[in-house]
Each structure stands twice: as C-alpha cells, then as structure tokens.
Please model this.
Amino acid sequence: MRKKLQSYGLNILALALLYGLMSFLIGQGAINKYYLGILLSAGIAIIMAVSLNLTIGLLGELALGHAGFMGVGAYAAALFTKNIGMDPATVFPLTLLLGGLAAAVFGLIIGIPALRLKGDYLAIITLGFGEIIRVLIINLDFTGGARGMRGIPRITNFTYVYVLVALVVAVMFTLGRSRHGRAILSIREDPVAAEASGIPTTYYRIFAFTVAAFFAGVAGGLYAHYVGVLDPNNFGFMKSIEYLVMVVLGGMGSITGAISAALVLTALPELLRQFSEYRMLVYSLLLIGMMLFRPAGLLGIREFSLTGLLSYVFRRCPHAEPEEREMPQAVAQEAPPLRPPVAEDAPVLLSAQRLGIQFGGLKALTDFDVTIHAGEIVGLIGPNGAGKTTVFNLLTNVYLPTSGVIEVEGVNVVGVPTHEITQVGIARTFQNIRLFRKLTVLDNVKIAYHNQMQYTSLEGTLRLPRYWSEEARANARAYQLLRVFGLEKLAEERADSLPYGAQRKLEIARALATNPKLLLLDEPAAGMNPIETQDLMATIRNICDRFNVAILLIEHDMSLVMGICERIVVLDYGQMIALGTPDEIRRDPKVIGAYLGGE
Amino acid sequence: MEKEKELPMLSVENLRVYYGAIHAIKGVSFTAYQGEIVSLIGANGAGKSTILNTIAGLIRPKEGDCRFEGQSLKAVEAHQIVKRGLALVPEGRRIFSRMTVQENLEMGAYGRHDKEGIERDRERVFESFPRLKERRRQVGGTLSGGEQQMLATARALMSNPRMIMMDEPSMGLSPILVQEIFSIVQEINQQGTTVLLVEQNAKMALAIASRAYVLETGRVVLSGDAKEMLNNEEVRRAYLG
Amino acid sequence: MKFLQQLINGLQVGSIYALIALGYTMVYGVLQLINFAHGDIIMVGAYTAMVAMTMLGIPFWAATLAAIAVCAALGVTIDRIAYKPLRAMPRINSLITAIGVSLLLQNAAQLIFSPNPQTFPSELKGAPISIGGLDIGFITVVIIFVAVLLMLLLQAFVHKTRMGKAMRAVSEDMGAAQLMGINLSTTISLTFAIGSALAAIGAVLYCSAYSRIAPTMGALPGLKAFIAAVLGGIGVLPGAMLGGFIMGIAESLTKGFISSQLADAVVFGILIVVLLVKPSGILGRRAHEKV
Model:
C-alpha cells in the first residue's frame, strides 16, 4: 500500500509540474492560440476516448453512439449556462456536472437494452440511440434545431481541460483496478462464468454504460463552452467512429493507448490540414489494418506507468513490474481463518424435488429429486448425455426448470438469478473450463470475492481506507486459497497460459472463493490420467473437510466416485434410475444394465 | 500378426494437437487395416474426439501426419477428405436439424455426382434404417435421439465411404438403442466398410472391435487385441468400472 | 385515399429494403456477422450503373448487369480480405473491420465522384397504372414486381438446388457441412455474391425511383434494411421480406401523417422495441446458448 501511495504521489507531482510548465508556456505565448486550441480539442478527445474505452475495452461491448452522449452533455450544459442567469464562469463546474448527469441518464436508458442484448445487436442499438439523439436535437425547438445553438460563452480554458483530463484518467485507472472494474472485465471474458462467480452482470453492464456516458457528457460540456456554437451534426455516427478509431488504435482496454491515440489523431489532422479530405479514408484503413494486423492496438494492452519508467531509469532494472502488488506472505499471517466451522449435525442444505426441463419438446430431465446435507459428498453419475450438466444448469438457474422446486436451506430459489444463487452459497465449475482467460490467476480468484467486499465504486475510485483494507484481505485470502491448490507461484500469470490440470484447479479455487456451502463440480477429472485423478479426488476430499462445503460431483467414471462419495445418484436418459450408497449402486441391476452397458 | 504386412488403410503418426496453450494430443500413433473395427477408448477429455476431428481435417495438427490409403492428409481440406472415402459421424450427431431427413441424406452425398450410385445408396440406407424412410419428409430436429443418431450415420454412409469414423454413437441413448446402434456398426463393417469407433462405453466397443487403443490424457497407454483387453483385469478395473 | 397512397409508397420503398435485407440476413445466417459494408454496396452499384450509362453509353439493362457483376465481385473480395482472416477472433473485431470497410467505400467514392449528389438517369419510365381511381406509378409497379420475383427465386434456389441446400447446411453447422464435403469458402463467397447482387438490383431500382445518387446514399437505406432483417428475424429469408415491407410502410406512414423529419427516429424506435420485446424477430428462432 505504501508503495502504491508513493506511486500516486509521484504521479500527482508529475502532473502538477507538467501543468505548471504548460501554464507558463501559455502565459509566455510560447504556446499560441492556435496550438492551445489543438491542445484543448485533444484534451476533450482524450476524455471521450478514455470513457469509450470503458465500454469497448473493459466491458467488451461495441458502442457506436458515444458522440450522442457528448451531444446530450453539450446541449444540457449550454442550455444551463444560457438560462441560469448567473455568471456562467462561477457555476461552470456545476454546469459540467449537469452535462455529465444528463448524458448519464441517456446512458442508463441505453444500458437497459443490455439487459437482454449483447454483441452485434447492442452495437446496433447504440448506433440507433445515437442517431435518435441527433434527430431529436434537430427537431426540438429549444436546441436551436438544425441551425444549431449559438452564443454559448466560451469559458473552457486550459486549466479546466487539464484538470478534468487528469481526473477522468485517474478515475478510469482506479475504477479499473477495483472490485467493480474487475467485475466489468469478467463480463468481457465470460459472462456465464461471471454470473456463476456472483457478479451481477446486468448491473455492471448498465453501470459501465452509464459511467462512460457521464464522462462523455462532461466532455460535451467542455466542448460546448470551448467552441461556443453547437451543430447537431457534430454528434452523429461519424464522430462516434472517430472516437472508436482512437480506442482501437490505442489498443482496446488500454487507457494510456487511448490517450496517445486521441492526442495523435487530434493533432495530426490539424497539422496536415491540406490532406483533410483523406482523413476519413485514412481512418477507415486504420480500422481495417489494425484489426487485421495488430488487433491489440499499437501499444497493446500494456499500460505506461511513470513509476515503472522511473524504476527502470534509476535502478536499470529491466523487469520492473508495471504495477506493484502487495506482498502476499507478509499479510497472509494476519488473514482470518478461511471459514468458521459449522455445527456437527448436518442440516439439509439443498433439496430439489420433481425437477424437470424440456427443450423444444425433448425432455432433458424429468422428476429429478435430490437432497444434500451440509458437508457431504454426493456423486452424480450417468452416461454421456444423460442430463448431468443439465442438473447443474438448473440448480444454478442458467436454465429455468419447466417443473419442480429447488430449495436452499428451505428457501425456494427457482427463478433467482444465477449470481444470487452463488451468494446464497452454491458455486460451480464447468465441464469445458470457463476461466477469465486473459486475466491473471489472482484476478480470477479475486473476482469471485466480489460479494465479500463491501466498498462502493466511489470508495474504490477515491481509494478510501475501506478499499485498502478489503483489497489487502482479499489478496491475502486469494493467495491462501491458491496455495491450497499449489497455484500461488502462478498468481501473476494469465489464466490461459496455465497447463490444463492447473486450469481445472484454478476453476475449483475460483468457485471456492465465493464461499459456498455447496460446490458443484462438473467432471473435474476430465482429461486427467488415473494418477492425477486420484490426486484430485484426495484434494476434493480435503476441500470438503477444510472448507466445510458439501460437494455434488459429476463424474461419468464410476470407480472414481465410489471412493469418495457418501451417496450416489445415477441418471440415465434424463431420469434418475438409482440413489444410494456406493455399495448399493454397485449392486443395482438397473445401474449395471444402463450405465455399464451390459450385454 | 499377419495384418502388419499389408499397408494400413489409416495410419496416424505421432499426432500432436494444441488448443492454445493446452497440449491436447501428445504424440499419438495408431493404425487401422482394411475391414477392421478399431476402437479408441478412454475417459472424457482423453482426446478421442480431438483425434477424430483432426483426421477429418476440422482441426490442424501441430505435428505428425495422418495417412489414408497411403496418402498424407496433411494439406487436404476437410471437404476433400470425405471425397477420398473417409467419413466422420461427429460427436453429438450434428445433423442439420432445420433440413428434412431426405435433405440431410442429400448433403451426405454432396461430394458425389453419380446419380444412380446415390439413388442406390439411398435405397440401401432406407433399407437399413426403415424408420428414416418413414420420416424422410420430417425436419431433422423433430427426430428422437436414437433416430438422429441413425440419421447421422446414414448421412455419413451416403458419401459411400471406404472407412467410417464414429464418435460416441451411444451418447445419450437408452440401453436398447445403444444395442441397436452397435449392431448397425457391425453391419456396416460386415458390408466392407472399415470402422474407427470412439467410445466411452468401453465394454460394448471392445466387444465388437478387433483391436483397440486406450487413450489417457492425449497419449496411447495401451493397445492390442480387443477381446484380450476385455478380459484384462487391469483394463477392467481402470476403464470398465 | 391518402392512406392508400402512403401504403403503396411504403410497399415500394419496403421492397427495396427487403432486397437489401436479404443480403444482411444471408451473411448473418452463415457467419453471424453484420456486414456493415452491405449498405455501401448499394452505393457502389448505383455509381457503377451510372458510370456505365452516362460515361460508357451502355444501355440500361446492360448497366444493371454491370452493377450486379461489380457488386458481386466486390462483396466476395471484401469477405476474403477483411472478414475471412478474422473468423477465429472475437466478434467485436470483425464488427470493427466491417465498419472500416463501410467507411472506406464511402470515402473512396467521395474522392472519386465528389461528395455532391448527382442525378441518376432513370430509364424506367412509363404511364402510371390506374386502379380504382388510384394512380400507381409505373416505377412502383416495376419495383414491387421485381423484388417479389427475386425473393421467390432466391427462396427456390435455397430450397431446391444443391448449392442452395449447401448454403443452408453451412448456416446451420459449418463443421458438419465440411464433413459432408461442402467447400466452406466457396459457399461463403457465393453467399456474399448473391447478397451483393441483390443489393445491386436494389440500388438500380432505388436510384430509378428517387434519382439522387451520392457517396453516402447507402448508409441510411442499408441501416434500415438491416433493421428490417432484424425485425423479420435475422437469418430467415421470408423474415427479411416481411421486415422490409413493415419498415417501408411504417416509414411512409410516419412521413405522411406525422412528420417526415421524425421518420428516421421512428424507424430506430421500432428496432429498439423489437429487440426488447422479441430479439429473435417476428419469424426468428431463439438461439440456445450452450453452457
């Protein structure tokens, strides 16, 4: 934490110095009006690009109406200035805030379709909204219509732009590295796994859209009071595309990349005015070329860091980490026990009755009953295609059952969103490993701690004390958990760089991090050899005792589950054909016939 | 063994396949001779389907080669491999569920241009699968699981293959249907088509196969005569439950 | 009477949307990709026909054929260069290239033909046809007739011919289609070629009716046609036709009875409502995500 604070201090100092230098140069006239204008435009573009990066880079959704939000902010701010009847310069911060809020409201409205849509459809919706905003501005009276709005006092100055750019960029950095930022990233990586890790994905989709729109609105306010004249056509699709180009060029997800691209793409066309007719042509070629040859952007997703640069320069340490992490070992000792022990007698944890689902007339599962007590290990076996994974998908409400009841500790959870089921205490793994592939091993686990941290997005952004204490605790617990699986040395590696067996283990670790009472494991031993499998089964046994969780284990290999399960449910063809102790199952003629494939 | 002397119909040589960073197939070699039923068995995730998909050209291997009737399949595209007489019935059937049974069969014969041959094969297929004949105007998606497996098999037969690869034909089927599918596999084989059978249901696969290979995490750990394997105590314990 | 007149106007413009929508829906059905550049193919078709007629002096029908050929070739080329290398990448990447291609075509056209609109020499002239006191323009009749005919032909192609069936097979399951011996690249190219050819015909009809031609002319009809495809159920051919007609009529009624300025906003409004109420469209199938 101290290192981080030092780093923040250093960055603030550098920013202040740069500000002093620039103000001096402007005051001296070394930066003339023309260059100042370019600087201000570039600053506004940086805010736009960095905020768009939140939706495109972090959330992973293509938003094509970003300029529309800017327009809302610009008009709202300009109208406020013109009608407030006070000195516009004194209320300017309030004006900008209002512009941001107005845009945020529109962002929220656009975010709502995100409840149901993603990908291409969402992109089209954002495009449509952007155009609707433009058409509305043209057709409303109080906006000045197609002629535009004139006579807006020009109060945007270097200080405002500089401070706001610094502020917005800082917020994007700190937000991105908080539990809220990780939640957004997890949606980009795998929305299904994010839900299963307890992330309310719908909330965070809308959150990302709203925050991005807010900052675009602020940029709009700055823009309105910089140019003094508003033309609705300046907020259309083509403008949105310009900001998209900046994000793509800088590398989707990279803030420093977006900043550099915004600077270059604002300055270059100004300096090369005689070629202005080729500008959009070049942009289009840039978009295509970048996607074909350098989809990660010119700078990639790496962030430039002043601290990293300094330590590189001064210590000549070539492997300077871009960001300092907490020292895990030191904190680990202070960490609380992973979970308080529960009472000896085992109450009913989960009970499902007459559970069934049909897919277009095909009965995938019928009349499935199961009761699981705290702390026990139950096996769910059956041939491929028998409906085992369907049971998991029903229990976690990935599918809504056509019939039946699911109760967790006596409370009906049918229809409860997946992320809430995770919070109630049911966690799962997936048959085809679903990790947050491009995130680190540590972040994979920390995302699952999301609901065990309380700090708000504001606390996280401002780095208030609760952020520090909760993050440190989560780090320590994550390392502790990773150690159980022998993964602590890989904590900083990207999840998809791990060998297969380690990925399986990481997925179990992530599920455990949600602090479940019941863990659903979907063929955890798939792809392992008998020795590795034996090893894993011992680990599972160990997990059950150590973390006090009950386990429902899908396996198709019967001999494997026999050793560790107290009870076994056998599914065949979507129907439960047997339930009993391993010995009973082994002797059950129905099981032998259906499952072992008798002759 | 006598078989060793003749040229294998299919030979897979030191196949290595990666999915991103994951090393899925770690140097697998095996052969299948004309007229055989060869079975690949092993647990989920052992890499059986990956091997079949690689042979069929849907996945490109990192190293190694597959030879069909002596010719390398390395640079051959998936749609060309069928035309050479090597068909795959994929895992999970993957019939065209919005097309009719008849259209599915037509697609199976897509690479062929001999009208009479296609007509003859369709009749033959309908003879072996009378239920498909009854439902030939029905859309594939409305068939039951067993019928879909039959359609997938029939569709592959429509390319008139000399060798057919089947990926878990028993998946999700009730015991009676599994029996039926396996007797169909045997029948196909008796009509002269070489069969490469991937199964989780090791007992049944070994019962009809002549030779078998046991796969474990992307490697062949055991190979030999299927009947001997069926009686091998170690195999029984590890794979037959 | 005014209502009927607007209805017929709506059918006319709706027919053109439907023709363009077919291209979107075919490509989407096969690749799950929104071919953003499809709208600009219309523009290329229009300019090709115009250049062929005014500069090369080719007759109207031959100019139409030239437009079809150029657009089909362009559609295939775009796919090969800009989309094909990205098939294995995240969707957002090909969506961005698609936007890039669209901008490229528009801006290239602006450099070649200047951004100013030009007049398209319409040859489809004839006496209006009168039905029950209602005058229907000759061009309107031609447009509706050609559009419906082409759609019937396409439907027949997809259901009756070997290539058409292969196209359906590819759109359902690419892997399985390859196992049947179907050549993926050929089939995908054919999809782009047919879709672009239909767009070219749409372009010639559109310009014959409205006679204005400009580098950005494709963007808006393209977008509306896309909305039509979504409305009808993307990936479903009859859906594109239904969606096109609904869009055309809605737009024309708004223009006639509410405000011509707001017509575009209404159109986007329809899209948003459809996507919120039934994202799979009127005739669409619900996709089932496998976990």
